[in-house]
Design goal:
Blueprint: H1 5-48, H2 51-58, H3 67-77, H4 79-82, E1 89-95, E2 101-104, H5 107-112, H6 117-125, E3 139-147, E4 150-158, H7 161-211, H8 225-260, E5 264-269, E6 274-277, H9 279-285, H10 295-299, H11 305-309, E7 317-323, E8 326-335, E9 343-350, H12 352-388, H13 395-427, E10 435-438, H14 439-456, E11 460-465, E12 471-474, H15 476-492, E13 499-506, E14 510-517, H16 539-544, H17 551-561, E15 565-568, E16 576-583
Parallel strand pairs: 11-13
Antiparallel strand pairs: 1-2, 1-4, 3-4, 5-6, 5-9, 7-8, 8-9, 10-12, 13-14, 14-16, 15-16
Helix pairs in contact: 1-7, 2-3, 7-8, 12-13, 14-15, 15-17
């Protein structure tokens, strides 16, 4: 009930009025009592210290038989000045030795009245006693009087009925004022509620709207503190909206990055439950990551969760794992350890290509070393023979030795040329020299160039050219290099006495050339990789034929730069068919 600010304000106002009226009433009634007490004491002291009254009280009349009657006569004569009315104030004459009642304005009251402190003090000291207790229900003075030779005590007694009646009236006045004040406080509380609580309620409603995402501006209805608070709230709302918008933008960026990043990421809680994962992680692990999956189920066999959690940031543990035909590099690191709400982050890199390239490079270095060492060894051996046996070798044998040296030199030149071509492609220094030339003539030139080599191997080489092949724009030397490479591979990897067919034609926007053979073919597992650098299907046969695994990769680089395509045609039966397609108008970026 008293949780609302309005009710608290009413309660405060009521308590304030009650407290104020209580304090005022207490001070007022106490002041009235003290005023009457002081007035009574002052008046009595003044009366009994007057010379005339003192003489009348102490000097007996001539022929007076009883001093008490004389005192009564004097007191009756001065009742008005003493305020003795027989209703609220009385006088009594007491024995000065025993304090016994002798006479007074009310015999019944005087006989039953106990000796007051003032009477006792007057009896004890013989001096006037005028002090009265403010908390007592009466006030009195006791004045010792010696009349003739007898001592009496005159007690003026007031029962405070006047004070009580006045305090009662004051109390009723205070009650009335209190009731009026309470009614006024309630009405004022409603007024304050309208001026103070209503803007606060608007602020509360505005805060709820802001919490729900509604950042509408609040109306500033005044220039007081609440108005300043409302303006500050509006400023805070604008700042909060901008901050939330900025945070959402950053979160969207991170979500997009996290969703589309090529590296896999899986986050686990300290208990090992999955917090977050991205599609790349599922793709690399080859399985979906479900909410019920745990760290122990996914990576527990690689490193225990507790071991990773004990690592000090920015420490991490790197582990390599093989999943299917993929090689994965895993980085396991703890995060947010200080807050106690952290866990373990696993970042997954697919290093399959990197490891494969490293293996192929190592193999390439070994192959190149072998290919270069073999001709160099042959050249040195034959040259040393010619030098050591100069003039003793028959001319025919000398010519044969020189032919071997020349062939081995050509073989080395071919290897080095392939390496230089690859280097230029990697460095970006190999630019195409575009010109328009006859594609049909180029194909025919390749046919004529390899015809004798094919015949040496007993191959049947055929050529089939469409009549409508147009001239194309390209780098003629590079295109011839591609053609020669493909045809040479067909001759090289087809067993002697095979069939090799060269054909060419055109599409609407491209020209094409196909080289088919009935040779050893390419296994299905190797087909996707034949255009990779350094890759060779039959390593032993390639070494025997002097291959380095660069020919088709160089051919693909050249075709790609012409914005064409080169691919392995799927066909039934043994053998291989490679197709080359080039745009008639050349690469668009070269124009």
């Amino acid at each position: 009930m008293f949780r609302s600010l309005h009710m608290k304000l009413v309660l405060i106002m009521v308590l304030l009025i009650i407290s104020l009226m209580t304090v005022v009433g207490a001070f007022l009634m106490n002041a009235v009592v003290r005023y009457y007490l002081d007035d009574f004491n002052t008046r009595m002291s003044s009366m009994f210290s007057a010379q005339d009254l003192y003489e009348d009280l102490t000097i007996p009349y001539d022929g007076e038989a009883n001093g008490v009657e004389g005192l009564q006569d004097v007191l009756r004569a001065n009742m008005g000045e003493l305020g003795v009315d027989g209703r609220t104030r009385y006088y009594f004459i007491l024995d000065g030795t025993t304090g016994a009642y002798l006479a007074g304005s009310d015999d019944q009251l005087g006989q039953n009245l106990d000796k007051s402190p003032n009477v006792l003090r007057a009896l004890a000291t013989g001096e006037p006693a005028t002090g009265s207790d403010i908390t007592a229900d009466f006030m009195d003075v006791a004045i010792p009087i010696t009349r003739g030779e007898v001592t009496y005590i005159i007690q003026i007694y007031d029962n405070r009925q006047t004070v009580t009646e006045l305090n009662g009236s004051i109390f009723m006045l205070i009650i009335q004022a209190l009731i009026f004040g309470l009614i006024s406080s309630v009405l004022l509380s409603f007024l304050l509620a309208k001026t103070m609580i209503t803007p606060i309620e608007r602020l509360t409603a505005g805060a709820k709207r802001v919490a729900s995402g509604d950042f509408r501006k609040l109306e500033v209805g005044s220039k007081d503190e609440i108005g300043v608070l409302t303006a500050t709230f509006n400023s805070m709302s604008r700042q909060l909206q901008a901050t939330i918008r900025e945070a959402e933008n950053e979160r969207n960026k991170l979500d997009t990055l996290f969703l589309h990043m090529t590296d896999g990421v899986v986050a686990f809680s300290q208990e090992g439950g999955v917090i977050q994962k991205n599609p790349a992680a599922e793709d690399m692990l080859g399985r979906p990551i479900l909410p019920e999956d745990t760290y122990e189920g996914l990576f527990g066999d690689l490193a225990p969760l507790e071991q990773i959690l004990r690592l000090e940031q920015p420490g991490y543990q790197e582990i390599e794992q093989t999943v299917g035909n993929r090689t994965l590099d895993l980085l396991l690191a703890p995060f947010d350890q200080e807050s106690g709400q952290g866990g373990v982050m696993v970042v997954i890199h697919d290093v399959t290509t990197q490891r494969r390239n490293e293996e192929m490079r190592r193999e390439f270095v070994a192959n190149v070393s072998h290919e270069l060492r073999t001709p160099l060894t042959n050249i040195r051996s034959y040259a040393e023979t010619l030098v050591d046996s100069a003039g003793d070798i028959p001319p025919a044998m000398e010519k044969n030795f020189l032919g071997v040296i020349l062939n081995e030199s050509d073989r080395m030149t071919h290897i080095v040329q392939d390496l230089l071509t690859l280097s230029r492609f990697d460095s970006g220094r190999s630019e195409l020299k575009l010109e328009r030339f006859s594609f049909q003539v180029a194909v025919r030139d390749i046919y004529n160039a390899v015809l004798m080599d094919a015949q040496r191997h007993g191959h049947t080489l055929t050529l089939d050219l469409s009549p409508d092949i147009p001239d194309i724009v390209g780098d003629r030397d590079r295109v011839l290099q591609v053609m020669m490479n493909v045809v040479s591979n067909a001759i090289k990897y087809t067993p002697d006495g095979g069939q090799i067919a060269i054909s060419a034609g055109r599409n609407p926007l491209r020209v094409w050339m196909e080289v088919s053979d009935n040779g050893i073919g390419i296994p299905a597992s190797d087909r996707p990789r034949i255009f990779e650098r350094f890759y060779r299907v039959d390593k032993a046969r390639s070494r025997e034929s002097g291959g380095t695994g660069l020919g088709l990769s160089i051919a693909k680089e050249i075709v790609d730069r012409h914005e064409g395509i080169i691919f392995l045609v799927d066909r039934p039966g043994p053998g291989t068919t490679i197709r080359i397609e080039l745009p008639i108008e050349g690469p668009a970026h070269g124009k």
